[in-house]
Amino acid sequence: MNKNKIPLLLVEDEPHIAQGLIFNLEEEGYLITHVESGEQALEQLTKKSYALIILDLALPGISGLEVCEQLRTQGDQIPILMLTARGTEQDRITGLSKGADDYLAKPFNLKEFLLRVAGLLRRANWQPNHLESKLYSFGNNQINLETHQATTTHGTIQLTDLEMRMLLLFFNQEGKILSRGELLKQVWGMSPKTETRSLDNFVVRLRKYFEVEPTKPRYFRTIRGRGYRFIQAPE
Ligand code: CA
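That is the input. Now the predicted structure with calcium ion docked in place:
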Protein backbone atom coordinates (compact mmCIF):
# COMPACT_ATOMS: atom_id res chain seq x y z
CA MET A 1 0.00 0.00 0.00
CA ASN A 2 2.85 2.33 0.84
CA LYS A 3 4.41 2.01 -2.57
CA ASN A 4 1.87 4.35 -4.14
CA LYS A 5 2.37 7.06 -1.56
CA ILE A 6 4.49 10.06 -2.46
CA PRO A 7 7.60 10.18 -0.24
CA LEU A 8 8.43 13.56 1.31
CA LEU A 9 11.38 14.51 3.48
CA LEU A 10 10.59 16.84 6.38
CA VAL A 11 13.54 18.64 7.98
CA GLU A 12 12.31 20.34 11.15
CA ASP A 13 13.90 20.51 14.59
CA GLU A 14 10.93 21.83 16.57
CA PRO A 15 9.02 18.74 17.76
CA HIS A 16 5.56 20.28 18.04
CA ILE A 17 5.73 21.86 14.58
CA ALA A 18 7.06 18.63 13.09
CA GLN A 19 4.31 16.63 14.76
CA GLY A 20 1.57 18.87 13.39
CA LEU A 21 3.00 18.82 9.88
CA ILE A 22 3.49 15.04 9.86
CA PHE A 23 -0.06 14.50 11.04
CA ASN A 24 -1.54 16.68 8.34
CA LEU A 25 0.71 15.46 5.53
CA GLU A 26 -0.06 11.84 6.39
CA GLU A 27 -3.73 12.70 6.43
CA GLU A 28 -3.25 13.89 2.84
CA GLY A 29 -1.75 10.51 1.97
CA TYR A 30 1.95 11.40 1.79
CA LEU A 31 4.68 9.16 3.16
CA ILE A 32 6.83 11.23 5.52
CA THR A 33 10.41 10.77 6.61
CA HIS A 34 11.26 13.19 9.39
CA VAL A 35 14.80 14.30 10.33
CA GLU A 36 15.86 17.07 12.71
CA SER A 37 19.04 18.47 11.17
CA GLY A 38 20.58 19.45 7.84
CA GLU A 39 23.30 16.83 8.22
CA GLN A 40 20.68 14.10 8.70
CA ALA A 41 18.75 15.41 5.70
CA LEU A 42 21.78 15.24 3.39
CA GLU A 43 22.55 11.74 4.63
CA GLN A 44 18.97 10.59 4.19
CA LEU A 45 18.96 11.90 0.61
CA THR A 46 21.83 9.58 -0.27
CA LYS A 47 19.76 6.60 0.88
CA LYS A 48 16.37 7.27 -0.63
CA SER A 49 14.66 9.35 -3.33
CA TYR A 50 12.08 11.91 -2.31
CA ALA A 51 9.59 13.90 -4.33
CA LEU A 52 10.00 17.04 -2.24
CA ILE A 53 11.89 18.43 0.76
CA ILE A 54 10.14 20.57 3.35
CA LEU A 55 13.12 22.36 4.82
CA ASP A 56 13.20 24.50 7.94
CA LEU A 57 15.67 27.39 7.65
CA ALA A 58 16.88 27.62 11.25
CA LEU A 59 18.30 24.24 12.21
CA PRO A 60 20.93 23.08 14.66
CA GLY A 61 24.24 22.59 12.81
CA ILE A 62 24.16 23.56 9.15
CA SER A 63 21.23 25.77 8.17
CA GLY A 64 18.45 25.07 5.73
CA LEU A 65 20.05 27.58 3.36
CA GLU A 66 23.30 25.62 3.36
CA VAL A 67 21.46 22.36 2.73
CA CYS A 68 19.68 24.01 -0.18
CA GLU A 69 22.86 25.48 -1.62
CA GLN A 70 24.73 22.20 -1.29
CA LEU A 71 22.02 20.22 -3.07
CA ARG A 72 21.81 22.69 -5.94
CA THR A 73 25.58 22.82 -6.33
CA GLN A 74 25.51 19.03 -6.66
CA GLY A 75 22.92 19.47 -9.38
CA ASP A 76 20.12 17.92 -7.34
CA GLN A 77 16.82 19.20 -8.74
CA ILE A 78 14.55 18.03 -5.96
CA PRO A 79 11.80 20.59 -5.22
CA ILE A 80 12.39 22.44 -1.94
CA LEU A 81 9.79 24.23 0.16
CA MET A 82 11.63 26.42 2.67
CA LEU A 83 10.07 27.18 6.04
CA THR A 84 11.21 30.00 8.25
CA ALA A 85 10.24 31.88 11.35
CA ARG A 86 11.52 35.04 9.75
CA GLY A 87 9.31 36.52 7.12
CA THR A 88 11.29 39.45 5.82
CA GLU A 89 11.55 40.04 2.11
CA GLN A 90 15.33 39.70 2.27
CA ASP A 91 15.02 36.22 3.85
CA ARG A 92 12.67 35.18 1.13
CA ILE A 93 15.00 36.44 -1.59
CA THR A 94 18.00 34.75 0.03
CA GLY A 95 16.09 31.47 0.28
CA LEU A 96 14.95 31.60 -3.32
CA SER A 97 18.38 32.62 -4.58
CA LYS A 98 19.91 29.56 -2.90
CA GLY A 99 17.62 27.40 -4.98
CA ALA A 100 14.48 26.95 -2.89
CA ASP A 101 11.41 26.57 -5.10
CA ASP A 102 8.95 28.06 -2.69
CA TYR A 103 8.98 29.75 0.68
CA LEU A 104 6.59 29.94 3.60
CA ALA A 105 7.03 32.06 6.74
CA LYS A 106 5.94 30.71 10.14
CA PRO A 107 3.33 30.84 11.46
CA PHE A 108 1.59 29.77 8.29
CA ASN A 109 -1.88 28.63 7.43
CA LEU A 110 -1.96 24.84 7.26
CA LYS A 111 -4.24 24.81 4.28
CA GLU A 112 -1.88 27.11 2.41
CA PHE A 113 1.05 24.88 3.37
CA LEU A 114 -0.68 21.79 1.95
CA LEU A 115 -1.59 23.69 -1.22
CA ARG A 116 2.03 24.77 -1.69
CA VAL A 117 3.21 21.18 -1.26
CA ALA A 118 0.68 19.95 -3.82
CA GLY A 119 1.58 22.82 -6.17
CA LEU A 120 5.29 22.05 -6.07
CA LEU A 121 4.66 18.37 -6.71
CA ARG A 122 2.44 19.23 -9.63
CA ARG A 123 5.04 21.56 -11.09
CA ALA A 124 7.71 18.90 -10.71
CA ASN A 125 5.34 16.52 -12.49
CA TRP A 126 6.08 13.89 -9.92
CA GLN A 127 4.99 10.36 -10.66
CA PRO A 128 5.71 7.25 -8.59
CA ASN A 129 8.31 5.99 -11.06
CA HIS A 130 9.69 9.38 -11.99
CA LEU A 131 12.62 9.31 -9.61
CA GLU A 132 13.49 5.72 -10.37
CA SER A 133 13.64 6.21 -14.10
CA LYS A 134 15.92 9.26 -13.74
CA LEU A 135 14.94 10.52 -17.16
CA TYR A 136 14.57 14.15 -18.13
CA SER A 137 12.81 15.06 -21.35
CA PHE A 138 12.23 18.21 -23.33
CA GLY A 139 11.19 18.44 -26.98
CA ASN A 140 12.50 15.35 -28.73
CA ASN A 141 15.36 15.01 -26.27
CA GLN A 142 15.61 12.54 -23.45
CA ILE A 143 18.48 12.50 -20.98
CA ASN A 144 19.31 9.75 -18.55
CA LEU A 145 20.51 11.59 -15.46
CA GLU A 146 22.34 8.51 -14.18
CA THR A 147 24.17 7.23 -17.24
CA HIS A 148 24.48 10.75 -18.80
CA GLN A 149 23.35 9.33 -22.11
CA ALA A 150 21.08 11.48 -24.23
CA THR A 151 18.81 10.66 -27.12
CA THR A 152 18.25 13.67 -29.36
CA THR A 153 16.94 14.58 -32.80
CA HIS A 154 20.53 14.27 -34.01
CA GLY A 155 21.27 10.87 -32.45
CA THR A 156 22.56 9.37 -29.24
CA ILE A 157 25.37 11.06 -27.32
CA GLN A 158 27.31 10.57 -24.13
CA LEU A 159 27.46 13.77 -22.10
CA THR A 160 30.57 14.74 -20.15
CA ASP A 161 30.41 15.53 -16.44
CA LEU A 162 30.73 19.27 -17.11
CA GLU A 163 27.99 19.21 -19.74
CA MET A 164 25.78 17.31 -17.33
CA ARG A 165 26.48 19.75 -14.52
CA MET A 166 25.50 22.67 -16.70
CA LEU A 167 22.37 20.93 -17.97
CA LEU A 168 21.24 20.18 -14.43
CA LEU A 169 21.66 23.84 -13.50
CA PHE A 170 19.47 24.79 -16.44
CA PHE A 171 16.84 22.08 -15.82
CA ASN A 172 16.76 22.85 -12.13
CA GLN A 173 16.07 26.51 -12.74
CA GLU A 174 13.95 26.29 -15.82
CA GLY A 175 12.69 29.66 -17.01
CA LYS A 176 15.13 31.58 -14.86
CA ILE A 177 17.88 33.73 -16.36
CA LEU A 178 21.27 32.44 -15.24
CA SER A 179 24.02 35.00 -15.41
CA ARG A 180 27.36 34.14 -16.99
CA GLY A 181 29.04 34.64 -13.62
CA GLU A 182 26.65 32.28 -11.87
CA LEU A 183 27.10 29.58 -14.50
CA LEU A 184 30.89 29.91 -14.48
CA LYS A 185 30.95 29.66 -10.72
CA GLN A 186 28.57 26.71 -10.46
CA VAL A 187 29.98 24.69 -13.35
CA TRP A 188 33.69 25.46 -13.20
CA GLY A 189 33.98 26.89 -9.70
CA MET A 190 35.60 30.06 -11.03
CA SER A 191 35.26 33.50 -9.58
CA PRO A 192 32.26 35.24 -11.13
CA LYS A 193 34.59 37.87 -12.60
CA THR A 194 36.59 35.37 -14.66
CA GLU A 195 36.48 36.17 -18.36
CA THR A 196 36.22 33.11 -20.51
CA ARG A 197 34.84 31.95 -23.79
CA SER A 198 34.38 28.38 -22.57
CA LEU A 199 30.90 29.08 -21.28
CA ASP A 200 29.70 30.36 -24.66
CA ASN A 201 31.37 27.44 -26.39
CA PHE A 202 29.55 25.10 -24.04
CA VAL A 203 26.20 26.64 -24.78
CA VAL A 204 26.94 26.38 -28.52
CA ARG A 205 27.67 22.69 -27.98
CA LEU A 206 24.46 22.09 -25.99
CA ARG A 207 22.51 23.75 -28.80
CA LYS A 208 24.16 21.46 -31.37
CA TYR A 209 23.06 18.48 -29.31
CA PHE A 210 19.56 19.46 -28.36
CA GLU A 211 18.22 22.14 -30.66
CA VAL A 212 16.50 21.16 -33.90
CA GLU A 213 18.07 24.28 -35.44
CA PRO A 214 21.16 25.12 -33.34
CA THR A 215 21.43 28.62 -34.82
CA LYS A 216 17.81 29.36 -33.85
CA PRO A 217 17.71 28.06 -30.28
CA ARG A 218 14.32 27.43 -28.71
CA TYR A 219 15.46 25.85 -25.46
CA PHE A 220 18.85 27.35 -24.60
CA ARG A 221 18.32 31.05 -25.12
CA THR A 222 20.67 33.96 -24.91
CA ILE A 223 19.31 36.85 -22.89
CA ARG A 224 21.37 39.76 -24.16
CA GLY A 225 23.49 41.39 -21.51
CA ARG A 226 22.15 39.10 -18.77
CA GLY A 227 23.04 35.50 -19.44
CA TYR A 228 21.24 32.38 -20.56
CA ARG A 229 17.87 30.83 -19.97
CA PHE A 230 16.61 27.30 -20.46
CA ILE A 231 12.93 27.03 -21.23
CA GLN A 232 10.93 23.83 -21.77
CA ALA A 233 7.94 25.09 -23.66
CA PRO A 234 8.80 28.17 -25.67
CA GLU A 235 5.97 30.31 -26.98
CA1 CA B 1 13.93 25.53 13.52
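The chain has two domains: 7-125, 135-230.
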